[in-house]
Structure formats: structure tokens, C-alpha cells
Design goal:
The complex is a heterodimer.
Chain A: E1 6-15, E2 18-28, E3 33-37, H1 44-51, E4 59-64, H2 69-74, E5 78-81, H3 93-101, H4 110-116, H5 132-144, E6 150-154, H6 162-176, E7 181-186, H7 189-195, E8 198-203, E9 206-211, H8 213-221, E10 223-228, H9 234-241, E11 246-252, E12 255-260, H10 263-273, E13 277-283, H11 286-294
Parallel strand pairs in A: 3-7, 3-8, 5-6, 6-7
Antiparallel strand pairs in A: 1-2, 1-4, 8-9, 10-12, 10-13, 11-12
Helix pairs in contact in A: 4-5, 5-6, 7-8
Chain B: H1 23-35, H2 37-55, E1 63-64, E2 67-68, H3 69-98, H4 101-105, H5 112-141, H6 148-175, H7 181-195, H8 207-213, H9 217-230, H10 235-260
Antiparallel strand pairs in B: 1-2
Helix pairs in contact in B: 1-5, 2-3, 2-5, 3-5, 3-6, 3-7, 3-9, 5-6, 6-7, 6-9, 6-10, 9-10
Classes of the chains: A alpha/beta, B mainly alpha.
Chain lengths: 298, 263
């Protein structure tokens, strides 16, 4: 029997009047390395908190390896490397790891995780004296202790220099061979593309796209064509959608928004075969890609 | 996409016994406390110095209950030292929360109630050290006189009275975030000790001040801590101690539960 590493079904999360997560369905399979890509405030951290059982969804179901999140945590099946904080400055690196290790029923040896995180040489250093990158590798060592089936990383390389970033990802990469599922949040497309098998685009609390690195890059590299098309109907939208390189067609009244790699072909079709006017072509960054994909206007 | 099935079989995983309670954490927590110079000054040096300063005043050899005035001062100073230590320990709970350590611990099987329990145990051990320090200095000074069983009874009763101040520490730690809690608790407890008759007997105060003192949080526990020696324990002192304990625990629990909304 294969259990899903993570299953989110119809998950929403409100903080008072603010809807941080507006309905996410997501399944992660064992062994996948998945990037959660989105701008700040997209709901990445909120979703990760839900998977970790740090907060409860307003509605919907969250399951980790077929268990309720807190039960998965209690069994050491899930661990996480959080963005900042979460360390006691007056402990040494080894004490921090030993402290954490003592809380689990079964753990890897302290020396082994120090080695795998590449911080054996820092074992007796006070946490306060470690650089940001070193502290992040310490958090990674702590996360490795229970030999988790699922590892969550929330913007793990924020504030690291290029070298620290590379060392951190090398450690993660070296470790991922064991069939561990890894889900990491980032707002760098490059980082997602480089280290993930699969990228889940999240925007305004919803999944905007889900695919491999090249697929997502194509979305971000395309253009948006907007036009007013009087009398637009199914026939027109079907014809536009059938054009090469069209990813997405959105119709609101007479206003049509088309996302496509070959925007010229779309414009040519609209101007020659329909009554389109006010045709507008814009190149878009990843943020705009999110917006057009979620059907929200900026 | 990698399709390797996970090497981890969730059904073989165990939950730690006792919610994560274990001696390793207790050991590391104690080491932390003992490494902290400020804690050592508060816990071991300051109360002992206070004893040397107050304990030698004239009339120390006068009889009180089953001992003498020096023994009375010794029991009071032990309470003061232990209360200060427990409050410092309690305020660390809030500090660790503000540092995100509590959130980090939520990623482990450790139950929040077990965390508080272990913190309380460490606070008790540190309180015991403070009491021991004052008692050793008192014994060396050689002025305090009371039967051995009274020494022990006073120490044990004092230890449990310090739980009130551990709860106060947690409460103040939440209200005053960061490392400033002790800046409030240190002078605050000294003031309360003066008011509650820990440093100076209430009989030496004016009537008005004494009437106020009966309502302050140090009064009740001080009477209880010295009870094995004095054999005097007014009912309102017990009521005072219980009421303040309940109030501080409720305050700490209230602030903590509000804070847990965003772990």
C-alpha cells in the first residue's frame, strides 16, 4: 500500500476576516521534491503550518502519511526547518541537537545528523556564535533526527549568501536519495526550478499551477493578450484555446484574457477572425502569471 | 519526478512515553541555568549576602518559637532566594516562546503540558539550590539555632511556596516580553518582600503599612515558610498564600492560552 505523503482536500484557513488559504487540494507522493512557489503573503507559510499541525484548517482535511498532522509529528514522521528563530542562543550546537533528540521515541545518533548537516566541526560552539547559514544547517540537523518521511522547509535559504545557499542545498540533495518527501517554500523561481521535481504555484491562497520546472517556467515566460471581443462565445474561445502555445483563456463579459507563449499568433487570430478591439499585449513576470492564472486582477 | 516509495513505514513508528518527559532535557536545562551568571548571582550569592547583612543584627540570639531570631531571618532569606530563582525560571518560559523555541518544540512529540512540568521541576531544583545555599551560609555563620527537623521542615515548606513565584514569573514574562521581565521581577520581589515581612518583621511597621502588608503576595508564604519555627499561622495568611497562588497560576494560564493562538 502506498500512502500519500501529504493530502490536502478543500483546505481553507481564515484569520478573522482575512482568508489566508482559500481552498487548496494537493497530493504529494512519497519521494517527491516539491517546491511551493509564490509571492510573500500567498499562503505558503500558512499551508505549511497546517501540514505541521501548528494550526487547524477552518475547513477541509489535512493528512500526513494518512494520519492527522499532530499524530504524524508525535511519531517523528514529519519535521521542518523553519525560516528564523526557534533556537536557544545559550545552548551549544550539540546540546541543541541532543535536547531535540531526547524528545523522540526513536532517533538517528546525534553525531550522525551533525555530520550529515555538515556541522560536526561546530558541535561545541554556542548557537549565538553561529552564522545564519550555520544556524540553518543546525535546524536541518534537528529535522533529520527522527528520520522523517516528510521534510518541510519554509524559505530555508532566506538571508544566506550564495555559498551558504549552495552548501545548504547540497546537504538537502545528498539526503533526498533516501526516498524522503521534501516540500519547500520559496519565492525564487530559480531555486524552485533548480531543486524541485515539481513546482506548485500558489497565489492568494489558491493553487495557481502545478507542474514540472519547465512547465512552470513557460508560464512565467509567456505573454498576456487582452482584448474586447463583442459577441464572444464558446466557439471563439475554443478556437483560441486550440491555437499553439495557449495556456489559458479567461472570459468576463466581452473582455477576454489569454495567456500564451506565442502572443503574436493569438493577436493575429483575434484581429483577423473576430471583432476584437483594444488588443493589448503584455509581457509578464511570475507575479502577473499568478494573477492571470488565478483570474484575479492586480 | 522520483517515484521511489518511501523507506519509512509509518506503522512502525512509536510515540515517546510520558509525552516526551526525559532526564536529558532536565540535565541540559539545569546546566543552562547554572551557566547563566545572572541566575547564579540571584540564586546563590544575593540571598546569602542578604542573610549575612541582616542575620547578624543585634538581638539575633533572642528566642522565637522553637529557635532564635537568626533562624527566623534564615528561613525568610531562604524564601526570598527561592522565590527570586523560581520567578526567574518562570519568566524563561515566555522568553523561550518569544524566541520561537516553543514553536520549534511543537515540531517534536513533546506535549506542552510536559514542557511546563519540566520547567517547573527545574525551577524547583534551582529553588532547592537557593534554599540550600542560604542554609549552608547560615550554618557556617553559626548564629541560627533551631532543631534539625525544623530546619528541614522550613526548607521543604519554602520549596513548595516558591511555586507561586514560578507562576508569577511565567505571568510577568508574558506581560513584559523579552529579557526585561527580571528587571521588573527583581526589584518587584524585593519590594514585596519588604511589604510581606520577609526582611523586616511586620511588628516593626506602622499600623497602616501592616494592614496593607496582609494583602500582599509575600506575606502569606512567608508566614507558612516560618511556621515550623514559629508555630504561628493565622488563617488569613493561609488564605493569602492560596489566593495569590491561584491568581498567579490563572494569570499565567490566561496569558499562555491567548498566546497559543499563534503558537
Amino acid at each position: 500500500m502506498t500512502r500519500l505523503a501529504v493530502r490536502l482536500a478543500g483546505v481553507t484557513k481564515d484569520f478573522g476576516p482575512v482568508q489566508a488559504v482559500r481552498g487548496i487540494d494537493l497530493e504529494l507522493h512519497p519521494g517527491e521534491i516539491v517546491a511551493f512557489l509564490g509571492p510573500n503573503g500567498a499562503g505558503k507559510t500558512t499551508t505549511i503550518d497546517l501540514v505541521l499541525g501548528l494550526s487547524r484548517p477552518t475547513s477541509g482535511t489535512v493528512e500526513v502519511l494518512g494520519l492527522e498532522p499532530r499524530r504524524a509529528i508525535a511519531r517523528g514522521l514529519v519535521s521542518a526547518v523553519m525560516q528564523t528563530g526557534g533556537l536557544l542562543k545559550d545552548l551549544t550546537v550539540r546540546e541543541t541537537v541532543a535536547y531535540t533528540a531526547s524528545l523522540f521515541a526513536d532517533t538517528r545518533p546525534v553525531d550522525e545528523v551533525l555530520e550529515r548537516a555538515g556541522i560536526t566541526g561546530l558541535a561545541d560552539r554556542k548557537v549565538a556564535k553561529c552564522s545564519g547559514g550555520e544556524q540553518q544547517r543546525l535546524r536541518f540537523a534537528m529535522a533529520l533526527l527522527p528520520d522523517p518521511a516528510l521534510l518541510l522547509l519554509d524559505e530555508p535559504t532566506t538571508g544566506m549568501d550564495v555559498e551558504g545557499r549552495r552548501a545548504f542545498w547540497n546537504a538537502i540533495r545528498a539526503d533526498a536519495g533516501a526516498g524522503r518527501t521534501v516540500l519547500f517554500a520559496t519565492h525564487y523561481l530559480e531555486e524552485a526550478d533548480q531543486y524541485a521535481d515539481r513546482i506548485v504555484l500558489i497565489s492568494k491562497g489558491r493553487i495557481a499551477a502545478d507542474g514540472s520546472g519547465p512547465q512552470i517556467r513557460a508560464l512565467a515566460s509567456g505573454r498576456t493578450v487582452r482584448a474586447s471581443v463583442p459577441g464572444v462565445d464558446r466557439r471563439v474561445t475554443a478556437a483560441v484555446a486550440a491555437l499553439g502555445g495557449v495556456d489559458h483563456v479567461d472570459v468576463r463579459g466581452e473582455s477576454v484574457t489569454i495567456h500564451a507563449k506565442d502572443s503574436d499568433a493569438v493577436a493575429r487570430y483575434l484581429l483577423t477572425e473576430t471583432a476584437a478591439r483594444d488588443v493589448e499585449i503584455t509581457a509578464q513576470g511570475i507575479e502577473e502569471a499568478f494573477l492571470s492564472l488565478t483570474g484575479e486582477t492586480a | 519526478m522520483s517515484t521511489t516509495t518511501s523507506t519509512v513505514d509509518p506503522t512502525t513508528r512509536r510515540v515517546p512515553p510520558m509525552g516526551g518527559f526525559n532526564p536529558t532535557v532536565l540535565g541540559i536545562e539545569l546546566r543552562r541555568m547554572l551557566r547563566n551568571r545572572r541566575t547564579i548571582v540571584f540564586t546563590l550569592v544575593f540571598p546569602a549576602a542578604m542573610l549575612l547583612a541582616f542575620g547578624g543584627q543585634s538581638g539575633w540570639e533572642e528566642k522565637v518559637g522553637s529557635g532564635n531570631v537568626a533562624a527566623y531571618i534564615l528561613a525568610s532569606m531562604a524564601l526570598y532566594g527561592a522565590a527570586l530563582t523560581a520567578a526567574a525560571g518562570g519568566s524563561m518560559v515566555a522568553l523561550e516562546r518569544s524566541l520561537g523555541w516553543s514553536r520549534q518544540l511543537r515540531l517534536t512529540p513533546l506535549l506542552p503540558v510536559v514542557y511546563i512540568l519540566m520547567k517547573a521541576l527545574v525551577a524547583l531544583v534551582m529553588g532547592a539550590l537557593a534554599i540550600a545555599a542560604v542554609n549552608v551560609v547560615g550554618a557556617v555563620q553559626g548564629k541560627a539555632e533551631m532543631p534539625t527537623h525544623v530546619w528541614i521542615e522550613c526548607a521543604v515548606v519554602t520549596l513548595f511556596c516558591t511555586l507561586t513565584f514560578a507562576a508569577l514569573g511565567v505571568f510577568v514574562g508574558y506581560v513584559v516580553p523579552g529579557e526585561n521581565a527580571m528587571q521588573i521581577l527583581g526589584p518587584g520581589l524585593a519590594l514585596l518582600s519588604f511589604l510581606g515581612g520577609v526582611f523586616i518583621p511586620l511588628d516593626d511597621y506602622a499600623e497602616v503599612v501592616r494592614q496593607i502588608a496582609y494583602w500582599t503576595p509575600m506575606y502569606g508564604v512567608a508566614e507558612i515558610a516560618r511556621w515550623p519555627l514559629t508555630h504561628e499561622l493565622p488563617w488569613y495568611a493561609v488564605l493569602n498564600a492560596v489566593a495569590w497562588f491561584v491568581l498567579f497560576v490563572a494569570g499565567a494560564a490566561w496569558r499562555m492560552s491567548r498566546d497559543t493562538a499563534r503558537v
